[in-house]
Amino acid sequence: MQEPLLGAEGPDYDTFPEKSSPSPGDRTRVRAPQNKRVFLATFAAVLGNFSFGYALVYTSPVIPALEHSLDPDLRLTKAQASWFGSVFTLGAAAGGLSAMVLNDLLGRKLSIMFSAVPSAAGYALMAGAHGFWMLLLGRTLTGFAGGLTAACIPVYVSEIALPGVRGALGATPQLMAVFGSLSLYALGLLLPWRWLAVAGEGPVLIMILLLSFMPNSPRFLLSRGRDTEALRALAWLRGADADIRWEFEQIQDNVRRQSTHMSWAEARNPHMYRPILIALVMRFLQQLMGITPILVYLQPIFESTAILLPPKDDAAIVGAVRLFSVLIAALTMDLAGRKVLLFVSGYAMGWGPITWLLMSEILPLQARGVASGLCVLVSWLTAFALTKSFLLVVNAFGLHVPFFFFAAICLASLVFTGCCVPETKGRSLEQIESFFRTGRRSFLH
Q1: Please, is 313 exposed, middle or buried when counting C-beta atoms within 10 Å of its C-beta (0-12, 13-18, 19+)?
Q2: Mind listing the pLDDT tens digit for each residue in 180-222?
Q3: Percentage of the chain surpassing pLDDT 90?
Q4: N or C: which end of the chain has fewer CB within 10 A?
Q5: For residue 56, which of 180, 188, 207 has the smallest C-alpha distance?
Q6: What are the start and end residues of every segment in region (Disordered) (predicted)?
């Protein structure tokens, strides 16, 4: 008989013993990927994050260009520039709201693919814009697509990845978003603003093409009673020679225990609201650190400071540093742990990638689709408030005021991390969920 996932109750009971001794077969099944298809599926999905990062910072080189446009219908005032920069976040909030339904209705993969429709339409509107309203609508649509993918992609990646590589794969959404931003900054050195929008269509089309050949999440398929399809998807992800019975049984058992959607009565249970509350606060604090307004207005920020290099070059350098930092985080997250990086690293190595990963790891399966959308909704409504007010505050009080505020939030985030954020390194999603059910302190050390 196979050993249970969790030990028996007793005085020395430890939900997640630090030194477990699984059989060699179980160790192979749990920790080591049996083929590389899971990496291909992850790459196909996170192309959506590339588009998200590209679209988010689209305004950085475009606002200065449009402020000096010869076309009066496209020339931006300061007020219009703030709307052009911030309306993306309203679209992203709407995308997060829609993900609360689509994530569980269509599934993670189809929801990601659906995001290509507003994304492609938004880029087309901005590329052919002949009025301010087309720019705003295009930004809103690309924001909607970004919010939808922000809620769906981390969940999809966490549900197809093995515990041993989930940290590295879980960092790829942020890695690709940063790479998308860097690509925009680099292309901004070469292309006019309309062609920047045209170039944004490419990754969207590639994502659709690749994802059409990828499987859906086995956990989602099991939750819909499609057991045979789920088994086939897991076998494709792990490889034909892998023994997936143990993993499939654990997923199947967890899904059966949560076969219904979360009710309001269940939402009052600590094992439900605690992980959701942790994820919500992390996303709220992540945005209050100021990353979105800084990235959206990066080039105008550099233009207002005494710098040696052209603002476009400085923006590209920032993008390269962010990419390098997220790459380090992806390589070290499964070694150092999530919590350590939150404490000792900057945004790009810590709160940037880890917040997305932890959200997808700790949310209970029964509420994962709705809760991930709620997290994105809260995140981007916060981002809208900051992005819309950033230029107004800078013009009224100076650049130092918002940055002092961002620094104070960073200190508060350290306190929250120490008090409330669990370490999830090396744990399966079923084990993480069991911790919130049992509340065993061993998990936190």
Answers
A1: middle
A2: 998 998 898 889 999 999 999 999 999 999 999 999 989 889 8
A3: 27
A4: N
A5: 180
A6: 1-31
Q: Does residue 388 contact residue 78 with C-beta atoms inside 8 Å?
A: no
Question: What's the rounded Cα separation, in Å, for the pair 105 and 103?
Answer: 6
H helices then E strands: how many in the chain? 24, 0
d(CA 417, CA 355): 11
Angle of helix 163-170 relative to helix 24-31, nearest 10 degrees, comes to 10
| Cα atoms in the 13 Å half-sphere on the side-chain side of 33 | 17
Asked if 74 and 134 touch (Cβ cutoff 8 Å), the reply is no
Cα–Cα distance, 53 to 326 (Å, whole number):
13
Instruction: Say if residue 139's pLDDT is above 60.
Output: yes
Is 332's pLDDT higher than 60? yes
Nearest to 54 by CA among 181, 185, 190: 181
When pLDDT is cut at 50, 70 and 90, the band that residue 23 belongs to is very low
Using the structure block, give the residue that is written with the tokens 């020339």.
Answer: 75
User: 274-288 burial by CB neighbour count: b if 16+ within 10 A, else e?
Assistant: bbbebbbbbbbbbbb
Cβ(55)–Cβ(361) below 8 Å: no
Higher-confidence residue: 90 or 104?
Answer: 90
**40/133 Cα distance (integer angstroms):** 38
- Please answer whether residues 330 and 350 qualify as being in contact, where contact means their C-beta atoms are separated by less than 8 angstroms: no
CB-based contact 160:41 (threshold 8 Å): yes
Burial grade of 87 (CB within 10 A; 0-12, 13-18, 19 or more): buried
Is the pLDDT at 27 greater than 80? The verdict is no
- The pLDDT tens digits of the residues spanning 257-285 come to 765 666 666 667 777 888 889 989 998 99
Total Cβ atoms within 10 A of residue 1: 3
Which tokens go with 120? 């492609």
Confidence of residue 14 (pLDDT cuts 50, 70, 90): very low
d(CA 159, CA 204): 22
pLDDT given at position 121? 96
- In one letter, which amino acid is 341? L
- Cα separation values, 181 from 34, 54, 57, 282, 330, Å: 33, 5, 6, 22, 18
